[in-house]
Amino acid sequence: MDDCGTDANYMERALTQAKCAYRIGEVPVGALIIKENIVVSEAHNLTGSMKDPTAHAEVIAIRKASEMLGDWRLIGCTLYTTLEPCAMCAGALVLSRIERLVFGATDPKSGMVGSLENLVCDERLNHRLEVTSGILADESATLLRSYFKDRRS
C-alpha cells in the first residue's frame, strides 16, 4: 500500500493497469481502490485470461481490497476505474459500500452510472455513491479505441 495523491494521480495508476490488460489481450480497463489516501488494491480486466465473465477490473479490485482490509464493507474507500462501470460492477460497488466512484470514459453501450441508468445513485437501494466522472476520460477512451481497432485488424 502506498500514498500517491489526487484524482488525476490515482486515475493515472488505473490507466497503467488498463495498459497491462491491453498488453495481455484483455479489454483495457484498470481500477484501484484507495482508503485514506492509501492504495489498497489495483487490478485490470482478466475475463479472457481467467475464463471468468465476472473478472472485470472493478470486481477484482473489490475482492482484493476486501481481503486486504479484512471486511466486505469498503466504507471510506474510493474506487477509480478507467471506464464507466457496467451493471455487474455498479451493483458490486453498491453492495460493497464503496463511498465514492471516480471514472474516466463513459460507456454509452453498457454504462450503468449515467449512460443507460444510474444504479449507484438509485434512491431505492440501501447505499448510494458519490460519483466523479471524466477524469482522464480522453486518455481512457483513446486506449479503448486503440484496443478495439487492433482487434478488428
Rg computed from alpha carbons, rounded to a whole number of angstroms: 14 Å
pLDDT average, as an integer? 95
Percent of residues in beta strands? 15-25%
Count of helical stretches: 5
Element pattern in H and E: HEEHHEHEEH
Which class best fits the helix and strand makeup?
Answer: alpha/beta
- Largest sheet, spatial ordering of strands: 2-1-3-4-5
Q: How far is the first residue's CA from the last residue's CA?
A: 39 Å
Helix content: 25-40%
- Spans of at least 5 consecutive residues with low confidence: none
Major sheet summary line:
5 strands, mixed
Shape: globular
DSSP E strands, number: 5
Write the layout of secondary structure elements.
Elements: H1 7-23, E1 30-35, E2 38-44, H2 47-50, H3 57-69, E3 77-83, H4 87-95, E4 100-105, E5 130-133, H5 137-152
Parallel strand pairs: 3-4, 4-5
Antiparallel strand pairs: 1-2, 1-3
